[in-house]
Design a protein that fits this description.
By secondary structure, this protein is mainly alpha-helical. The chain is built from 3 helices and 2 strands; from the N terminus they run H-H-E-E-H. Keywords: Cytoplasm, Metal-binding, Nucleus, Zinc, Zinc-finger.
Length: 69
C-alpha cells in the first residue's frame, strides 16, 4: 500500500514542478534578432545571415551594405 501512496505523491510533485512558469523566450528572441531584410521583412541575427539570406532568397538583388542596414 505504501508504494501506491508514494506513486501518487510523486505524480503530484511532478505536476507541481511542471506547472512552474519557465518564462517566455520571446523577449530573448526579439533582442537577438537585430537585422531585418528590407525586401521580405524577415528578422535575422546578424549581417552575415542577411548576406546568406540574400544569396538564397533574393539572388538577383544585391545585399545592402553595412552602413545601409
Amino acid at each position: 500500500m505504501t508504494r501506491g501512496k508514494q506513486k501518487i505523491d510523486a505524480q503530484r510533485r511532478n505536476a507541481e514542478r511542471n506547472q512552474k512558469s519557465k518564462g517566455s523566450q520571446l523577449e530573448a528572441r526579439a533582442e537577438g534578432l537585430k537585422v531585418v531584410c528590407p525586401i521580405c521583412k524577415v528578422q535575422l541575427a546578424n549581417e552575415k545571415q542577411l548576406i546568406d539570406h540574400y544569396g538564397s532568397k533574393h539572388p538577383k538583388e544585391k545585399p545592402p551594405s553595412a552602413s545601409n542596414a
